[in-house]
Amino acid sequence: MSTPERKVRRPLVEVGLAVAIWLAVGFSLGWYYTFTYYGRAGWPMPSPEPCAAILLYYFSVLNVATELQAVHWMITFQCAGVLWLVSLRITLRFMKRRNPALAFEEVPFTRTLSRFSLAAIPLALPGPWMAYLAGLQDEGFTWAHMIAVALRRGNLSPRAWLTPLYFGLGLVALVLGFLAYRKAFPVPVTTACRHYPASLAVLTCLSCVIAAIAAFPLRFWLE
Fold first, then answer.
1. How many helices (H) and strands (E) does the chain have?
2. How far is CA 27 from CA 58, 71, 129, 146, in A?
3. How confident is the model at residue 96 (pLDDT cuts 50, 70, 90)?
4. Per-domain boundaries in the chain
5. Cβ(170)–Cβ(123) below 8 Å
6. What pLDDT is attached to residue 38?
7. What pLDDT band is residue 179 in, cutting at 50, 70 and 90?
8. How many CB atoms lie within 10 A of CB 126?
9. How far, in Å, CA of 221 to CA of 223, rounded?
10. 3-state secondary structure of 70
11. Environment class of residue 2 by beta-carbon count within 10 Å: exposed (0-12), middle (13-18) or buried (19+)?
């Protein structure tokens, strides 16, 4: 394969990888929040992207069929992954203007996006098992019951280990995400201690504002 073809293909592979992983994370956390919805015991995850996805979802919440709500939920995770990286870049560029000594070669956007998504894999791991538990009844697994639980038309009791498991995996994803951050943004530690939390604040604002704005056309078209 020629060099130009590789330059085109690599970003596509990186984007495809990020999309696949964030879909898996959305799938897994969708089950977690569905399970804990019945027991009112769900905790937000400690890593930035899942928290941003929740903000995007609830600030653009739609009064539509639960099938469309599920699609809406899955899309927010793609948006949250991109918004986190955008927030980091916007914040760092602002800091660079005030301190030109921070200049360094930025890693390509799609490469960083795929690295951040790889860090979130721990949160995706329980997804298939959660789907199996959702469909499990006394007589065994049934697809119909799994779908009923997914669409909040079936009841179940959340396991006591569920929230500690997911929160623990969220902490692992947080650490891996910070390692990916340090690789993508090799700034001094003192700068990182200002850049990272400032980017979290930007991410929170962007998630709320963008979701609130997007809610108007979405409600017009879908409700």
1. 9, 2
2. 17, 10, 11, 13
3. confident
4. 3-222
5. yes
6. 59
7. very high
8. 18
9. 6
10. helix
11. exposed
